[in-house]
Amino acid sequence: LKRSSARVRLVFLGAAGVGKTSLIRRFLLDTFEPQYRRTVDELHRREYAVGGATALNKVPH
Question: One MF term in GO for this entry (predicted)?
């Protein structure tokens, strides 16, 4: 099978405190933190299998 890769960029927009980081952390880390914590320049990474290939998500926010 031929392997290919694609780079996709997602942008999360919204006012402070609306849940952008919570959404990212839930998807990538399967966690939820109920306390608000200001985030600046964090990077989340996650690898997972898709159709026999490995995908790497790197999400800065």
Answer: GTP binding
Full domain range(s) for residue 31: 1-61
DSSP string, 39-55: --S-EEEEEEEETTEEE
Helix (H, G, I), strand (E, B) or coil at 43: strand
Name the domain count of the chain: 1
pTM score > 0.70 for this model? no
Which burial class, exposed, middle or buried, applies to 46 when counting CB atoms under 10 A from its CB (0-12, 13-18, 19+)?
middle
